[in-house]
Protein 1
Amino acid sequence: MNKNKIFSAVEDYFKNQDSFEFVPGKSKINVGFPCYDSSEVISALDSLIDLNISQGKKVKQFEKDYSKYLGVKFGVAVNSGSSANLLALTSLVMSGIVPKGSEVIVPAATFTTVISPILQAGLKPVFVDIEMDTYNISSACIESAISENTGLIMVVHSLGNPANMKEIMSVSEKFNIPVFEDCCEAHGASIDGKKAGSFGIISAWSFFVAHNMTTGEGGMVNTNDPRLQYILRSIREFGRLIDVDPSMERFGYSDDYLKDYDERYVFESIGYNVRMTDIAASLGIEQLKKLDSFNKRRAKIANDYCVGLEKHKNYLRMPNTPKGHFHSFYGFTILVNENAPFTRKGLITFLESKNIETRAFMGGNLSIQPAYRDLGLKVSGELLTTEMLTNNAFFIGCHPFLNDVAVNYVIQSIDEYISRLS
């Protein structure tokens, strides 16, 4: 069969699907959802049919497209967001930009894939509090935590709300400390038109199935620094010598130990195998074309939630987006105020019973998580806002495949719960 006939059949299949019809009380409202159609499937099938199933030309194209979208020079695609963080941190240490064993200032309220790679790279996390306005790392707390051992500031743009990068970059410049942006939840977020991920020396991304754009699994590291790009490409793939000119003979490497050796099998450093496949990249190429429209829909849903739940402002705190910030809303955060006649547990239990999925605010206070609490990790200052979110916050879905009926169902369900208790 001609592959164009296969592609046409895929298009027909998606045209005739009613899988996204919402039935109140029966259809599940997921926190995250893989929002794709025939274009992604056809692109992936094209790679499969042509036997391009490992890292290849589509990975290069996706790296180029995404870097251009961010406004940075280089992109290195990998197999997950946590791998992206690990490679980014390792490259910063290998380059000498971040001293070995130095401290990394991080928000206490974040996800485990922020903290574990810091430890895996031989660095030391220092937990600081977040600000109430954005639920992101506080620039004032960063400055208070800086010591002679500080090697890096690691910013996390939580749930798509960009951190206050102007203030953070000011602190960075004042103390000459580089900034690493974890943007795993912030695809398309920006400040005054400048994309999250283009402020610091390096940024990392996740394209997990639930995120604003997806490759199923996958991630990327972006930077303007050619040294870091070289290291990233090498350690992504076993630590091998990279960028061998295809026109060269393959036996050109020579030193005191390897005489005229095959350059494809020269290993410069200890690396990993965390490559992205062309199948995954084929999804990413198509998803990127839709990202801005997806985010526009996410922002519309978030605004509808805010308007619909305004009546409960004495009990519920909605997300805040500072002026000039574009919040890409991976999720919609709700904070149950301490004076509410109900608890977070009560509300989320009710929502789950209505088929409305909820999530805690990532790992909450990571410093008290079992994996980290007995490691003697450093905490700078009090974590008051972090504790508040740990105890009272959760988030719900606002992915672009939710229709207005589903959004209104969420609002009505919260209305129903609160009206019973207030």
Protein 2
Amino acid sequence: MPTILHTLTLVSTSPRRASLLRQLGYEPSVIHPTFDDGSAAPPLHTDVPGWTIELALKKAQSLAPDHPRNGELLLSADTVVIKDREIIGKPIDAEDARRIITLLSNCDHEVLSGVALLWDGGQQTFTDTARVSVGTILEDEINNYIDSGAWQGKAGAYNLIERLEAGWPIRYQGDPSTIMGLPMYKMIEALHTLGLHREAARAPSLPIEDPL
């Protein structure tokens, strides 16, 4: 590991992950990975935490050989929803999004995010899991949501904050930012250990944990 890590680069196409980092005082550069996680299918009987870490690593490693540079820390992540042992990633189209939202309605599921940190000479990975309970979502609400296109690019076809603000009956247990795609409680600890401190402490605009 270099003596000082002074540059944080987020390898992601997700504006939500960049927003989470900025809310908590980090100012990352953002680069889109050349690896398409949507094209990767998990093997049967897969180790889900290991699978998310593998995808996160592939995103970060897709920038080689130009990154990481000396003093640069690459950060990448992958998020999946798990319902009845089914691994659910991003919906491929509107009908798939409808299927996923209908599947998650009126029951519980888990959200697992895997994170990879790479620097010149080393790497660190970790995962975090949160549990989500969704009440009944009316058919008209589902139709309006599908028509809005807001499901695109989101694991499980939804974003926690957006759906809470829309009044969907959602409760959860765990780190809300894990559900949003980047477990910030663990992230802050990891970045601090690596010597990359926040530029400014800010009040995070994240919901308070709502025990199930």
